[in-house]
């Protein structure tokens, strides 16, 4: 009975504390682990709970339409549109998501994705990269969608927007939104930046995309190195982590000298589980020994009496 009570106290009070402490110790001891691996999940708690997944897709679609109306979209017969079609082909569905692609005729090095599956490439970026490098960029943007970075970004922008008050009272789907209100949300979305961890995850997805499609993985490295050559003062680099460092990380992965973020997370969780089991078994033995020792002392006292 005493042993069962002691083990229950251990499980309910001591073990959770040790788990938390052990997680911090393990994370700080892993040189190649981004500390955001431990904190990124906490951002999800800040989601605007009034937006369902369906609402996110609908609102992202409205935002994409507004962006398309405010840019010069390359028509089907345009050389940029033809080139993009030759790159994506029939690749409109993957990992449970549906994608649509367009080119903005604008001399700017940029690309972005929306949570509804919209991927937009600026003609300035297409002028800069060859076909293989563009495929990596497309795969990278797909990664932001599949890994739900764009959905989280929209929720955060929505939570910080005046739209939240107006739509919170609505039940279900997003109601009609005034153009001025939607424009304010789009401004927040376009100004928002993905975290370094999210950019790495999207890079990993882009690399996997190239490999899965049978394209040269080295195109990912050359694309990032070209972006790094834009110079520190370029607007693209002000909103993205250093492409040169990202290129180096991807290059090490191709050489088999580094792991992807997903592989690192899996290995970290396995390590934590193993350590927790070791600590649990070790402390269980200690507790059992203490209980046995206390029981022995109690028997001695009774014998003395």
Q: Count up the domains.
A: 2
- The coarse silhouette is extended
Order of helices and strands: HHHHEEEEEHHHHHHHHHH
Average of the residue pLDDT scores: 80
What is the makeup of the main sheet? 3 strands, mixed
> How big is the Rg?
26 Å
Summarize the amount of helix as a percent range.
Answer: 55-70%
Which structural class do you get from the secondary structure elements? mainly alpha
Task: Tally the beta strands.
Answer: 5
Biggest sheet strand order reads 3-5-4
N-to-C CA distance: 24 Å
Residue share in β-strands? 5-15%
Count of DSSP helices?
Answer: 14
Oligomer: single chain
Regions with little confidence, pLDDT below 50 for 5+ residues: 13-49
Pfam family, one: Peptidase_M48
Family: Belongs to the peptidase M48 family.
Protein name: Metalloprotease
GO molecular function: metallopeptidase activity
Please give a structural write-up.
It is a single chain. With 305 residues, the protein is mainly alpha-helical. The protein has two domains: 2-24 and 266-304; 33-258, no CATH class. The protein is 66% helix and 6% strand. The chain has helices spanning 2-29, 36-39, 53-70, 79-88, 123-128, 131-146, 149-159, 163-168, 179-191, 196-212, 218-228, 235-238, 243-254, 261-304; strands spanning 93-94, 97-98, 100-104, 111-113, 118-122. Helix 6 packs across helix 11 and helix 11 runs antiparallel to helix 13 (243-254). It starts with a helix and ends with a helix. Residues 13-49 have low confidence and may be disordered.
